[in-house]
Amino acid sequence: MTSATDGAPTSFSDRVLRFLERVEHRIAKTDCEREAAFQLRHDAYVRNDLMGPRADRRLFDKLYDIAPNAWITLTFVDGELAATTRLNLGAGEDALLPSLAVYPDVVAPRLKEGFVILETTRLAADIRISGSNSELAYVAMRPGYMAAVHFDIDFAVASPRLEHMAFYRRVLLFSQWCEPRPYPGLTASFGCMGADFHASRARIETRYPFFKSEPTERELLFGPRGEGPNTGRSEVLGGRLVSPA
Known about the structure:
By secondary structure, the protein is of the alpha+beta class. The protein has a single domain, classed as Aminopeptidase (3-Layer(aba) Sandwich). The chain is built from 10 helices and 9 strands. The protein has helices at residues 12-20, 31-47, 62-65, 104-112, 127-130, 136-139, 142-150, 165-172, 197-207, 215-222, and strands at residues 23-27, 70-77, 80-91, 116-125, 155-158, 175-176, 181-182, 189-190, 193-196. The strands form 2 sheets. Strands 1-2-3-4-5-9-6 form a 7-stranded mixed beta sheet. A hairpin with a 2-residue loop joins β2 and β3 (80-91). α7 (142-150) packs across α10 (215-222). It starts with 11 loop residues before the first helix and ends in a 23-residue tail after the last helix.
């Protein structure tokens, strides 16, 4: 890999690593931070014709956004909110995951077998920033990747549109679990994809080293041993204690 500082052409990973110097990841904890995420979602989804505009200019899901197993990520570039995702962590048959409402036939059996699943949804970016920074598409996914490491998950799950599935296959080594289906509240169909995180992690980090993180960075976002942002409980997996990697 060519060094990003020796004056020679840089690799893609070098570019993203340099871009990360301008980036800060946070978890939305205050009402103001959460509202900023809901508005960014709304604007991105309306811009992409996934929903009609709403008077309150917010895309908010009470069931999944304020659940004790939920984290709303905020990615800032040069101090400006650039992207957001929602992460939901689940284990066991009583897990609360958005995918269970649309793809229960492919997600529920894995939960029943005792696997821990981390689901990423509500990915949204500010077009003004993403339009001139192609690295943002990768960096916006980094908090979710850090959560996968932190909670030592078994499967990562996402629900992209058909045209975005190639990105998940190439970058995160996801496979398609089912064909696109209608998604509640949205105008497009979305398919369920997933990856065995233990099997894919080394390959992902070898190809894209910018996904790597230190334990201290992960704990700043997700706290120690499964502590959720919306509850005082230290265990968000219904009694299963998950230790950070």
